[in-house]
Every structure is written in structure tokens, then in C-alpha cells.
Prior knowledge:
Elements: H1 8-15, H2 19-27, H3 34-47, H4 53-60, E1 65-70, H5 76-91, E2 95-100, H6 108-117, E3 122-126, H7 135-142, E4 146-149, E5 159-163, H8 165-178, E6 184-187, H9 194-209, E7 219-220, H10 226-239, E8 245-248, H11 251-263, E9 267-268, E10 280-286, E11 300-303, H12 306-322, E12 330-333, E13 336-338
Helix pairs in contact: 1-2, 1-3, 5-12, 8-9, 10-11
GO molecular function: DNA-binding transcription factor activity; transcription cis-regulatory region binding
Domain HTH lacI-type: 6-60
Keywords: DNA-binding, Repressor, Transcription, Transcription regulation
Amino acid sequence: MTIKKITITDVAQLAEVSVTTVSLVLSGKGRISPTTMTRVNQAIEQLGYIRNRQAATLRGGESGVIGLILRDICEPFYAEMTAGLSEVLEEHGKVLFLAQSGREGKGLMRCFDTLLAQGVDGMVLAGGVRSVNGLKEKAEEQGVPLVCAARSNGLEGVDVVRPDNMQAAKMATEFLIKRGHSQIAYLGGQSDSLTRAERLGGFCATLVQYGLPFRAEWIVECDCHQRSAAEAAENLLRQYPNISALVCHKASVALGAYFGIVRSGRSIGSEGVDSFYAQQVALIGFGDVPEAELTEPALTFVSSSAREVGRSAATRLLQRITDSSLAPQNVILAPTLIKRGSA
């Protein structure tokens, strides 16, 4: 038995409108009355019509597909950002195609070319990579709008939506200082990370502002894996037992550092400032993850809502698709302190 494929003509007949009207409803274009739009959408739902995006692209030049390139979807910040991005796009009838360029970003150009070949209407470039040469020019050649999200190294003339990394670091450091800490170390990130450079800038500037010493040996690199962070934190505290607080580059680093502190024979909290014998280390990180509330004590974070970064990036990209002549924007989202028991 052959099952008849539902077509746009079937939808038009059931809704008692023209095929052109159905096409306008599907593309979100034209002036369609709410009553007619409701009738068409009801017919689509009743018939189970599925839009053929490739055909739509050939007819109208838009595929309804948005591309997203990020390094690793497993990173909590980018998973949350992707959710926010998808929410807004789905509200506007768009779907998201995701490509991972790898932790070092080596597959960036391959991902970029692949998404262009899929006929995307626009693209979001998330996270930092070492080289973005040629991306803007290639996107312009193809007429594909580009927005950078959560990138410290934006492209000149391209819209950027990102957290305020320097202010987040100032907030975290000042919070610790005002709680009595003067021996504060920074853990995590790699030396070639611009996000880390911004956070270290805020960290060091705040130490200087309060007349506290900056010690290069207390700025420790490590990757984002919890095991690496645990080892780095343990080694640092054994070598410099007078450290009373750690600022951690990422949520995963903070979680790893939690176990490193315990393995060094210390405990986590904010009561050990006045007495070395309390043996406590305050712990604060950037970002936020559900696991932060499972530790004892729960972890304190400075967070710039990843979901809001995604939502703002999607909104800006949709505006850019509608009007390519808009002046580029640099949207910087303010951080929030989430106080828990670790600091």
C-alpha cells in the first residue's frame, strides 16, 4: 500500500487558501491575518505536513536552518548556551545545525564550509579558537550573516554577544578580599586563552587595587578536566600552604579543585581566614553547574547566564538576517554572584 505524501497543495485546499498564502505562512513573510494564519497552521497540524526545507530554499532563498559551530558540546556553558539559542530560533520557525570544531578549534574551517554547503540562513560562531582568518570574508561572499557568541576574540565588523570576563573576575576577587582573604591563587585555563587573559586581568587589577601582592607562581595553568584540576590544586596547596582562597577558571576546574583541596588535607569553606589552624580554603569559580549544589559545602560561582548569551545571539542573528545593513553590536552581559558555602 502506497502512502500519499502530504503536499503544500493539500494544506492550501484544507485551509481554503492559495498555495502562495501557505508558503508565506511557512516562511514568515508577507501580511497574513491572524485568522488565516491560524487556519493554515491547523491544516498543517491536521494533515501532518512536514516542510521540505530544500524546496523552500530553491523557492525563496531561505532554508530555515541556522548553523552553530562550537568546540565541545559537553562543556556545560556551551550546552546551556545552545539551549538558549535553540529556544529563540524555534520560536521563529528555525532549526539549528550543530558542528563541533574540537577543543583546539582545528576543525573550524571544515565545519564552516560544511554548514555553508547546507545552505544555512545564518551562523553563530561560539567559543574561542586560535585562528578565524577568512571566516568573515567567506560568510560575506555567501551572503550568510555571522554572529560571534561567548568569544573574547571577535571579528571586526561582526556582531558579538559575550560575558564580561574581566568584571566577573573583579567580582570574584573582591568578594574574597572583603571576606578577609589576602593569599589568593588563580587556577585553570591555558596561556593562549583570551578569556583567561581577560579574567586574569580583572583578577590582578583587583589585587593591585587593594594593595595585595601578585605572585606569578600562584597563577597555575591546567586543562578543564576535573582530574587535572584536582592534581593542580593539591600540588599548589602542598607547595604554598598559606594560600587561603582559589579562583577557578571554569566550573569543571572548581569541581576538580574541590577534591584537590580535600586531598591536600584542607577543607573547603570561608571560616579559615583568621586562623591558619582552621585549614580552610575558600573556593570560587566562573560559570555554574547543577553539580555545584551537590558538594558539601556547595560551590560559590560568578556566572554570566550562558542561556541568555544564546538567546541574545539568536535574537541578534535573526535581526541581521532581516536587515543586513544594521551596524555591528558588541553586547556584553553582566555577571552575577551566586553565593553558596564554599567562599
